[in-house]
Amino acid sequence: MSEDNSPKTSLSELGEFGLIDHLTRFVELYQPSTLKGIGDDAAIIDHENFATVVTTDMLVEGVHFDLAYMPLKHLGYKAVMVNLSDIYAMNAEATQLTVSIAASNRFPVEALEELYAGITLAAKTYNVDVIGGDTTSSTSGLVISITALGKAEAEKITKRDGAQPNDLLVVTGDIGAAYMGLQVLEREKQVFKVNPNAQPDLEPYSYLVERQLKPEARKDISSLLAALEVQPTSMIDISDGLSSEIIHLCKNSKVGANLFEEKIPLDPAVISVCEEFNIDSTTIALNGGEDYELLFTVDQKDFDKIKGNPNFTIIGHMTEEREGMHLVTRGNQKIPMKAQGWNTFGDTNDE
Ligand code: ADP
Ligand code: MG
């Protein structure tokens, strides 16, 4: 949040083609399936006998991110994670990305370089190829749209519609931390507005802030499930909060669900920051967002393969559709679940 006095090059100095060349000069290719990457009218991909999965996500300044506390390098990294998470949620392997950027001349070349450094770091870490994109100007603000491609054997691909009554409901990792990280950053932003010399001490919140600013997509889960010989019946990634994702699985699969409050995996840092902010941690887990963990269902017969694994927590089970979707509280009360995930259009009822 400090003044940056490093040299600034205006976007117009490089021109569109110069800018594309400049930004993509460190792009490397890792995937044998990329026959042609950047530099022609279109990229060429050969996934041979595998099915191809494709997903796109757009991030808009002021709607999805705030550059007051989001460093551009982290933004680039996160923009890739958001997309890879969707590929992994199909039980597929991510292979390629296209990156489209619209930026106003408020952003110097150096800013877009930072953004691109995050994108290429993510691509390298996750072994995916940046194979193209588009670069254009905008009258205000920054927009990043990424498309990710992946591959999987057709019969392994896991959709939202395969859950059956009595299937176990399983989540990876822990949830709620990214949302609380955002609350901490928002609070520091307000403090900074009042006193620009205040140096925030984010140390006690490092896990939360990291989950918000540098999320990691669950690349490991597909191969882990394959090693355990578990084929999930349905899967989704957690971008909008646990309850809206459970509702998506239920509605698509035409089943109900019971989610047990006491089973929801929370990091101790989430529990303590919720006490500090005087917020109920279950509410955060259900309605927060941006966890980028995976939520899936498995047949009961796979219970032994899942139960002892530290990557997984069994949080409930599916039921007949007519039984509905419920949170079973610690006090054994059944509360109907409602979707309260993020809604870009500002409408709280997003069903
Ligand atoms: P066209 O006029 O055919 O759309 P462009 O001049 O927009 O081509 O892009 C030239 C090449 O650079 C293409 O391969 C395109 O995919 C790639 N490209 C453009 N912008 C980006 C970007 N932001 N990141 C990665 N590749 C890009
Ligand atoms: Mg173009």
From TrEMBL:
From the UniProt record, give the pathway where this protein acts.
Answer: Cofactor biosynthesis; thiamine diphosphate biosynthesis; thiamine diphosphate from thiamine phosphate: step 1/1
Segments forming domain PurM-like N-terminal: 39-151
Q: Which GO terms describe its biological process?
A: thiamine biosynthetic process; thiamine diphosphate biosynthetic process
Residue positions binding Mg(2+) 3: 41, 86, 237
Would the keyword Cell inner membrane turn up in this protein's UniProt record? Answer: no
**Entry-linked InterPro entries:** PurM-like_C_dom, PurM-like_C_sf, PurM-like_N, PurM-like_N_sf, ThiL-like
Where Mg(2+) 4 is bound, by residue?
41, 55, 86
Q: Does the keyword Kinase apply?
A: yes
The record lists ATP as bound by: 116, 133-134, 160, 239
Entry binding sites for Mg(2+) 5: 240
Positions annotated to bind Mg(2+) 1: 56-57, 134
Task: Please tell me where Mg(2+) 2 binds in this chain.
Answer: 57, 86
Reaction equation(s) it catalyzes: thiamine phosphate + ATP = thiamine diphosphate + ADP
**Record keywords, A-Z:** ATP-binding, Kinase, Magnesium, Metal-binding, Nucleotide-binding, Thiamine biosynthesis, Transferase
Q: Where is the PurM-like C-terminal domain?
A: 164-323
Q: Please give one Gene Ontology molecular function term for this protein.
A: thiamine-phosphate kinase activity
Which residues are noted in the entry as substrate-binding?
A: 64, 290, 342
* Record EC number: 2.7.4.16
Show which residues constitute the signal peptide.
none
HAMAP family tied to this protein: TMP_kinase (MF_02128)
Q: What else is known?
A: Reaction mechanism of ThiL seems to utilize a direct, inline transfer of the gamma-phosphate of ATP to TMP rather than a phosphorylated enzyme intermediate.
Describe the task this protein carries out: Catalyzes the ATP-dependent phosphorylation of thiamine-monophosphate (TMP) to form thiamine-pyrophosphate (TPP), the active form of vitamin B1.
Q: Which family does it belong to?
A: Belongs to the thiamine-monophosphate kinase family.
Q: What is this protein called?
A: Thiamine-monophosphate kinase
Native source organism of the sequence: Mesonia algae
Starting at the broadest rank, the lineage of the source organism is: Bacteria, Pseudomonadati, Bacteroidota, Flavobacteriia, Flavobacteriales
- State the gene name recorded for this protein: thiL
